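Researcher: Re-running this chain for the archive, since the previous output was lost when a drive failed. Same request as before.
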Amino acid sequence: MLNSQGVRELAYVVKIDNILPIEGADRVELACVGGWRIMVKKNQFKVGDYAIYFEIDSKVPEEEPFMFLAPKHFKVKTQKYFKGTVLSQGLLMSFDDFKDEKGNTPSWVMSLEARVAAKKEIEHEGLTEVIGVTYAVEEDNKRKAKSDDKYKKMAQRRSNIFKKPWARWMMKREWGRKVMFFFFGKKKDKKSGWPNWVSKTDEERVQNMPWILENKSEWVATEKVDGTSTTATYKKTGRRKHEYYICSRNVVFDKLDKNCYYDTNVYTEMSEKYHFEEVLADIVEKYNLEWATLQGETYGAGIQKREYGLKGHDFCGFNLIFSDRGRLNSIEAKKIMEEYNIPWVPIVDEHFILPDTVEELLKIATDKSTIDGGMREGLVFRSADGTKSFKAVSNEFLMKYHN
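Model: Regenerated structure tokens:
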């Protein structure tokens, strides 16, 4: 789930939407949360109960009450049961699971229970940092670590101030962030700071937003490529001055020799291969923009387990963002990139109508890749105007490459 700041939460409060029986099972059943189905003990939950959901691809602390996950190295993954007929994705735990035998209760659980008693809504409350949940894959913890954004650096350093309601209110406004930085920021926060006009790349999963399937307008369906998020941005700062940045999911590579998670800096490699700086500079001039940003996926050898048969690396764009219009739709963006010989993610369907259920959409997402004919990771759906998007990741792909 993406929180209000667009950051993925790996653990959060949910409400049980439905309980489904499992044929032939006496002790377990399926609890439904949004588009997710999780196997739980029979009668552990009922519809409407609050619970704590841990997303797939997460890792819980190696301590109680998670010791039952020790055989799985404390990782939460997609699992198949009953000879592959039942799929369980995620982990559900109750508030009581976090109370010890002596009845001691963590303060954060007491806070949640008090709010429930006061009839306050707690659904989607993020608990990732409170519980200490991380990504199951160490690479993701490094690539998706806390942002280099100068404002976030400032807030992280002075968390006692920035947790206050008035400070959060200020930080939601551009002028407010500038005022707060004037008083609380430091020069070191600016160093290698994330360009504040660029949004991070992270699509929400359809299971977390099943209500989107009610939208029967046309969507552009593109192939989801399994790689590492790559952002290039160019901004005019004066008559003859400009700023150019090439970034990973969170790190700004302001120096060519800056450490990269991979053996070589695949981000600067793609920037040089496709001349991102020159291309974006030309686009800014041609369309009379203040700035332009290209975001895409770098993939190939050594980046993920799915290497697409490459011995080296390649790139395909999935977002082109203009300062005056925001994110362009995929069809227009692809045409512009073709002028500069920059690959775009394969467009599977320009007029896709969403099916009625998550299960149907996941089946559609499971298919062959246009890139090499192997297994496709899934699909990303964008609205015709480019403003809305979400992803559907193939369960078969998850089982093969991320389990």
